[in-house]
Amino acid sequence: DADVTQTPRNRITKTGKRIMLECSQTKGHDRMYWYRQDPGLGLRLIYYSFDVKDINKGEISDGYSVSRQAQAKFSLSLESAIPNQTALYFCATSDRGISTDTQYFGPGTRLTVL
Amino acid sequence: GQQLNQSPQSMFIQEGEDVSMNCTSSSIFNTWLWYKQDPGEGPVLLIALYKAGELTSNGRLTAQFGITRKDSFLNISASIPSDVGIYFCAGRENTNAGKSTFGDGTTLTVKP
Question: pLDDT (tens digit, 9 = 90+) per residue, A85-99?
Answer without folding.
Answer: 999 999 999 886 655
